[in-house]
Design brief:
The chain has 188 residues and is an alpha+beta fold. It contains 5 helices and 8 strands; from the N terminus they run E-E-H-H-H-E-E-E-H-E-H-E-E. The protein has a domain of 123 residues: Aminopeptidase (3-Layer(aba) Sandwich). Helices cover 26% and strands 30% of the residues. It binds coenzyme A. Coenzyme A binds next to helix 2, strand 5, helix 4, strand 6 and helix 5.
């Protein structure tokens, strides 16, 4: 398993949150995280009622091509070892565009962990020249829409084929304190 990217942050329950890259040996930890997801969260993450993570999906989720994709895990340690709280991932689909997905186990939602994870995904994405995140979202996924609003979503939303297609301006996410991203002048 890879090392933490930095000193741990803390979630709103006061407990530490470490963030590191997901690697090839993380299948069992991803399966354990999957078992911590409600059917609603599973549907919202995969846009399908996935019952379990089969070998093919585990392989795809743990074996990234580092030239175009990465996945970061938020985790904690207990006496029984490490456990995952959530995962954020990005997959480049164009020179400045990447698909982005994020999930936090239900027991740890609303504690700021999704924000911590996304902040790190954004930092890395910017470093590799990504300007836009693309996400496909169930229109009933109100937590995600509220989450997007909270982290400074700016971009485009289209409703097509029963789904919301989000194109998120990566530069606008997590505006600096005092900066009103709504009034920011669009870049040329
Ligand atoms: C979307 C998701 C990742 C958010 O993660 P999280 O760790 O709960 O998010 P945070 O705690 O950082 O929330 C930050 C802010 O977003 C907003 N927010 C997040 N979840 C919300 C909810 N259920 N209802 C209302 N607002 C919400 C709030 O403003 C929140 O701040 P607050 O708690 O101080 O009010 C999580 O709900 C999730 O995993 N959902 C299932 C999978 C999914 O939908 N993924 C997205 C599609 S790929």
């Amino acid at each position: 398993m890879s090392d933490p990217l930095s000193a741990p942050d803390r979630s709103k329950d006061g407990l530490p949150v470490h963030i590191r890259e997901v690697g090839p040996s993380d299948g069992p930890l991803l399966e354990a995280l999957f078992r911590c997801l409600s059917p609603r969260s599973i549907y919202n993450r995969f846009l399908a009622p996935v019952r379990h993570l089969d070998d093919g999906r585990i392989h795809a989720l743990t074996h990234m091509d580092p030239t175009i994709e990465f996945a970061l895990a938020a985790y904690r340690r207990s006496e029984r070892g490490e456990y995952l709280l959530g995962v954020g991932r990005m997959h480049r689909v164009g020179p400045e565009e990447a698909e982005m997905a994020i999930v936090v186990g239900d027991a740890w939602q609303r504690l700021g962990i999704g924000s911590l994870l996304l902040r790190e995904v954004v930092r890395r994405a910017r470093d590799t020249g990504i300007r836009w995140f693309l996400s496909t979202v169930d229109p009933n996924n109100l937590p995600l829409l509220r989450f997007a609003e909270a982290v400074g979503f700016k971009g485009a939303l289209h409703y097509r084929d029963g789904l919301l297609w989000m194109r998120t301006d990566v530069e606008a996410l997590f505006p600096a304190p005092g900066e009103d991203w709504r009034s920011r002048t669009p870049r040329a």
